[in-house]
Write a structure and sequence with these properties.
This protein has 174 residues and is of the alpha/beta class. The protein has one domain: archaeoglobus fulgidus dsm 4304 superfamily (archaeoglobus fulgidus dsm 4304 fold, 2-Layer Sandwich). It has four helices and seven strands. It has helices spanning 57-72, 95-103, 142-151, 160-170, and strands spanning 10-16, 23-30, 38-46, 78-82, 107-111, 122-124, 133-138. Strands 3-2-1-4-5-7-6 form a seven-stranded mixed beta sheet, with helices on both faces. A hairpin with an 8-residue loop joins β6 and β7. The protein is globular and about 35 Å long. The protein starts with 9 loop residues before the first strand and ends with a helix.
């Protein structure tokens, strides 16, 4: 485990779009991939965002993620997103693939629902949940990514880090 004064290299990120417009991007960071103890968090407000475009979700989400990751002030070694890295077994890029291309660090996608073309996603069941999470990845094997997600802290279907970053993105802070 990293010394307490070292930056937290593992981050989970999420973006929320309030009905009144704009976006809130959030991240939680930890010094180990289980996210047992959150070392730091950030919330950024973006007053304007691109409109949603079918098939180009990443174009709306990436600027918010760039902003919140830039606020962190240090490099990361792994990013976990709520969503897919790639959208089909042929590598059609999703948000995670675009983020991986920009950051050149491993990205793990954790989706709560099955996407019809993502037959390659590895189902991961956590806790007592009957419904799986769907894991995809870039820069790390999908098998390793699935193991990381399975071992993340928290007793529920959704790991605690993803629950917390979602709550931060939906909060009025920022």
């Amino acid at each position: 485990m990293a010394a307490p004064n070292q930056p937290a290299p593992y981050v989970a990120v999420d973006v929320h779009y309030p009905p009144e417009g704009g976006a809130r991007a959030a991240l939680v960071a930890a010094r180990e991939p289980r996210f047992t103890r959150i070392a730091e968090d950030r919330v950024c407000w973006l007053p304007r965002v691109a409109p949603y475009q079918p098939g180009r979700f990443y174009a709306r989400e990436l600027p918010a993620l760039r902003t919140v990751l830039g606020e962190l002030g240090h490099p990361v070694s792994l990013v976990i997103i709520d969503g897919y890295v790639d959208l089909d077994p042929h590598g059609r890029p999703g948000l995670g693939a675009h983020l991986h291309a920009e950051l050149a660090v491993p990205v793990i996608g954790v989706a709560k629902t099955a996407f019809r073309t993502a037959s390659h996603a590895v189902p991961v069941r956590r806790g007592d949940a009957l419904r799986p999470l769907y894991v995809t990845s870039a820069g790390v094997s999908v098998e390793s990514a699935a193991a990381i997600v399975a071992e993340m802290a928290g007793p529920y279907r959704l790991p605690d880090a993803l629950r917390r970053v979602d709550a931060l993105a939906r909060s009025q802070v920022g």
